[in-house]
Amino acid sequence: MLQLFKFKGGVKPATNKTQSVSQPIAIAPLPSHVAVPLHQSIGGTPRPIVAVGDKVLKGQKIGEADGWISAAVHAPTSGTVIHVGQQTVPHPSGLAADCVVIEPDGKDEWIERKAVDYRSLAPETVRELLREAGVVGLGGAVFPTHGKLTPAKSVPMEQLVINGAECEPFITCDDLLMRERGEEVVRGAAIFRDLLQPQKVLIGIEDNKPEAVAAMQAAVKAVGEDFEVIAVPTRYPAGGAKQLIRVLTGKEVPNGKRSTDLGVQCFNVATAYTAWRALAHGEPVISRLVTVTGNVAKPRNYEALIGTPMDELLALGEPKADTNGIIMGGPMMGFLVPDVKVPVVKATNCLIAHSDALFPPKAPEMPCIRCGECARACPHELQPFEMYWFSRAKNFGKTQEYNIFDCIECGCCSFVCPSRIPLVQYFRFAKSEIWAREKEKKASEIAKTRFEFKQFRDEREKQEKAEKLAKAAAAQAAKKAAEAAAAQATGEAAEAVPPPAAAETSPADAVKKAAIQAAMARAKAQREAAASRNTESLTAEQQQDIQAIEARRMASGLAVPAEPKAE
Amino acid sequence: MSMDFSTPPYLLKNASVTRVMTQVLLALVPAIAVYTWLIGPAILIQIAIASLAALLGEALMLKVRRQPLAPFLGDGSAIVTAWLIALVFPPLAPWWMVVVGTLFAIVVAKQLYGGLGQNPFNPAMVAFAVCIVSFPALMSQWPNQALHLGFADQFQIIFGLTPRLDALTAATPLDALKTGLKLGEGQVGVAALLANQDVYGQFAGRGWEWITLCYLLGGLWLWQRKIITWQVPTAYIGALAAISGALWLYDPAQFASPLFHLFSGGAMLGAFFIATDPVSGSTTPRGKLIFGAGAGLLTYLIRVFGGYPDGVAFAILLMNICTPLIDLYTQPPIFGMKNGK
């Protein structure tokens, strides 16, 4: 049995998971339309490669990955493109972003799917295929998976962690995925294993999901792998990549360092599943499992197409009358979507119908009493209350001294705060302010550099001009001195010699003339040499012949063609 | 700056400032019960006076500062300050002195600094310090253990309805020991003085030792409830025991035992209820150890070598001054940064 480690902090909110696990995964029916945001991963925004009116097939690429850290997006079903442009997307601020909207034709007709045996392919090709299939981290961070599949050069890969912890309350999509499609998760993990070549593969699952643990153990056995399936203590946020790595390996990945630098890498179980589907079935990521729960009559997990309007998906769960919003994600890190019609995206693991009865409005914020509960709950061992003081005071330099950028916004601090301070909000505010200022600073630095360079250039030009002037002045002086010397040397016989100006230029002219003459001579010599070479080895008869020809030519009045001979 | 409340996390733990303060008050209840039983109901009168004064002072200042009354009067913090003041003042102290102390604590030490969470000094300790400097005689008159006064007598003394007779009061056990040792000029030992059954009980002040024991039990309950952490009380008690033990071993005739010191005066109350005040105390784990140890050490030095009967208040106030510096130098390493930055 593997020795488990502990991470500091964390909280134990009511898990609320049992509601949505009683039913198996259902396939959500085709929605009225699908709006597929082009930007569904960290990195470059894919460029649309379809236009309004185009017919597309299910799985057809509609957005081309832009840059290495980017992932392609695909049509979730067959139909007609009815809009390419800005639409409200699931973002807390109600942001609009470029989407491709498709009206389904109801046939759900696939493109030609090409299964590959990834073992026969070079690792670069496999990574490229995953990028083309739009495989991204489905745990919520949506980092392009292929970008995480290159081991560090200097550090041997020790562990590959497959994250099935699913620590957020209410969410059960990974649980159901492991229960029902465990083998494909294991096969997906094997792809990652083959690319990264770790010594061990560890599958971590919170111990409140014994069915998933058993299913995964059986799946590992069935596939014939030696992966270890490990139940980890249930404590939010055990499913955070850094926390799970800590629990399973004892390694702490510091902020700003890649986990591969410590010989470990981590992927979500759903990511492994989609990687397998992409390679072994040629299916790009066009759907995902979404838990529909909260204030609904029939909580359940659905396999829903990316782009499905959230209200249509939530309607399958039959939301109760007092529902007044949709939370995308869990209640700890999720957010109320600004518009219930926003589409399901690759990061959408859960939809929670929100009601005031289920999530009572918060009591008014009280002053911080420095009780330190937040610091004890922080899984990154930060001092949230100190960061709060300085965020509130807009003393952002100090927030950075207290490592605000190590904050993963898990919400543990807000969860425990007796003063009901929305701490995470303050930290987001501080972070965005720091970013904005950093940008401004960079812009002003560029402007400053530009200005300084212009100054430098002006100065240099001035200097060059001054140097030129000085040179000219010096030449003038030398000329005058020469004149004076010449005048002295010639005395009364000055008229007999050429004028001083001519004498001045004559040496240079002479050199030039000599050079030209030498060149001409060389050319002539070459020509002559060439000409002579052609007639060098002629026999007497030939010479006679030539002479006879020349004579005839002369007789007919033709000039001696000297040049063509040399050709 | 105010923040949007419809933001994650949507799930919250059932916690509030009122809940924290209520548990602190609950932890004091056993000690108050024993106090009432052994010393008399005067403590209940003082708690009532202090609580009333605290709420009035708080309401007045909230009005002046244009702050909402309900959340801040209901948070329980003023009541905690009031109870602590009542418990550290002499039970027969005149009512106006308790009022002056409480109002100073709430108006000056707390509200003028910005109210809840903003005070650099523990308000109850400020009240004690102000009164012992301003009214040293009244602050040194503790009930004579040989006399048992009923509710009516105590009530009349507190409100000045009967003359404050010298015979009714006595020095505290700590003060009596210090004075006795001084007067004895090395001829009278600790043991002989502690033999006085009117003043001393099983291991410390008569009656007071059981109240102090209740503070310890209440404090342990707070620790078990995770309202306080172990560092401050452990360091406080450890430091006080260490220095008193060292001197006791050096000369048991002139220095009382650690047991006596731990259960005398405000040591236990200070260790569990006052030095643990999060607002004015250190917040980092190592900082709490330094804070507690410093307070314990200063308590002993002031009560044994200083001019005041007890050293808890000044010890904690002195450590309050050091808190920002202690916190600055004891920031714990963060996740992933433990093996040196």
Q: What can you tell me about this protein's structure?
A:
The complex is a heterodimer of chains A (567) and B (341). With 567 residues, chain A is an alpha/beta fold. Chain A has helices spanning 123-132, 173-196, 210-223, 241-249, 269-281, 310-315, 373-377, 384-392, 396-401, 412-416, 423-490, 500-536, 540-556, 563-566, and strands spanning 26-27, 34-37, 47-48, 55-56, 61-64, 73-74, 79-88, 96-104, 159-163, 200-206, 228-232, 264-268, 287-294, 300-305, 326-328, 335-336, 350-353. Chain A is 40% helix and 14% strand. The N and C termini of chain A lie far apart (91 Å). With 341 residues, chain B is an all-alpha fold. Chain B folds into two domains: 40-170, no CATH class; 171-341, no CATH class. Helices cover 61% and strands 1% of the residues of chain B. In chain B, strands 1-2 form a two-stranded antiparallel ribbon. Chain B is globular, with a radius of gyration of 21 Å. At the A-B interface, strand 16, helix 10 and helix 11 of A face helix 1 of B.
Top keywords for this entry?
heterodimer, A: alpha/beta, Rossmann fold, four-stranded antiparallel sheet, disordered C terminus, B: 341 residues, mainly alpha, 2 domains, 2 strands, disordered N terminus
